[in-house]
## 1
Amino acid sequence: MNGLDSWEARWAPYSEADYAAVLAAIRPDDVVLDIGAGDLRLARRMAQIARQVIAWEIRPELLAAQRGERGAESDQRLRPVCTDARNEPVPPGVTVAVLLMRHCTHYALYVAKLRTAGCQRLVTNARWGMGVEVIDLGLGLPFDSIDVGWYACRRCGAVGWAGEDAAAVNAAALENITDVEGCPACSVNGER
Ligand SMILES: C[S@@+](CC[C@H](N)C(=O)[O-])C[C@H]1O[C@@H](n2cnc3c(N)ncnc32)[C@H](O)[C@@H]1O
């Protein structure tokens, strides 16, 4: 698919543990934007909890296969849209976005659009490419404020280790991850 990494364009479901972590982060008053919703299996479950779920999926065949299955009351709160999430404006009122896409190469673009629309939380496995985390979409700490330790960039999604002073490494530095803004990779990733 045009401009998408071949892994990114691929549909695959995630584990029940991943879905449980997402569902635990969804509140009854949420308007959820599911970015890359696949066959809607998670979006349907989120619609049983949230006020509304808008589900964006680029591959029409995944959504077409679901058409006959609508019927539950929660399905009325689910709005599937076949679209490219890179080009679609985030609708006003979205309170939380879900981005289950371990190979996402457009994290920075999605965060910029979500912030512009006033969305407050992002539930994702895209930053670490591992388990699910909930990211506060407010500004992270300036990257330069870390002396030494792990960081994860809210703006561009890069993760890594900051600082080179081995003498400054202690238990707290090893255990903590600081959410930052403006990391060394931002100028590269921020343009994607
Ligand atoms: C790994 S699958 C996860 C599906 C679903 N979130 C789940 O957990 O069951 C990622 C999905 O994102 C979709 N996708 C990737 N890039 C997209 C884009 N730019 N716009 C809309 N959907 C996209 C893919 O087609 C794929 O179905």
## 2
Amino acid sequence: MSFSSSWLTLREPYDRSARNVAVLDAVATWAAGRPSIAVVDLACGLGSTLRAVTERLPKRQDWRLVDNDLSLLARTAGLARPPDLTVTAVPVDLARDLEMALDGPVELVTTSALLDLVSHDWLDRLATEAAARRLPVYAALSYDGLATLDPVDPLDAAVIDAVNQHQRGDKGFGPALGPAAAATAPARFELVGYTVTHGASDWVFGPKDAEIQTEVLTGWAVAAREIGSSSIADIIGWLARRRDLIAAGRSSMRVGHVDFFASPTGTR
Ligand SMILES: C[S@@+](CC[C@H](N)C(=O)[O-])C[C@H]1O[C@@H](n2cnc3c(N)ncnc32)[C@H](O)[C@@H]1O
């Protein structure tokens, strides 16, 4: 599954404001007092997690950015960064070679908008491999299946149901957890001995956020068409009504996400 750089760029400021501050504080508290830190960011995209977290970590940071999309990885090479920060972009297919991404001098694992794409088995593998290395994990922005639109349209619920079904399709890691990731992932880490801090990181789009609303709702219409539980005519009509509301500056929406920081019990 591929993600365009324009989509990742569009969503980054909304992700940034959505990230749960208590969870970010837990990461900062864990890292406080260290002279330096080595981080691996799984499925880094364009490096939004690095930009969101860097200020909360010790000044000297070594980041290993991992993704299987060479074009996104290539763009992370041009990131502006302070002198005490080194960044290495590493192409890895995480479905196949997760362990390779975690090996070596790593002290913190980060990821965002990944865990809803992965399967139950892959999540187990991540928790087990991280626990074996006693690595803390900051995982942001897992979709939780709860979305609301304002004003309400009679077809919203059917479209959101279809989106949630679509989210459970295979995204390259086996059948995806989709909306179940938000509850399953923190619980899975607790089961292998982690202390978990978690909290909501919902996207909140107001009437002025027209471009991202249009992008998200168009993606939902495509997903609903692929699932096929509503007719194509109904979906086209729904998208046209929603776009009219956006154009009139009358549309708002909230899309539920969850962040967590899992720290191996017994470490700060
Ligand atoms: C929703 S994007 C999130 C990107 C970034 N973490 C962010 O929050 O902006 C999902 C990312 O997962 C990456 N990805 C998907 N499947 C992958 C795989 N098998 N191995 C490595 N990366 C993968 C995509 O290339 C994409 O960058």
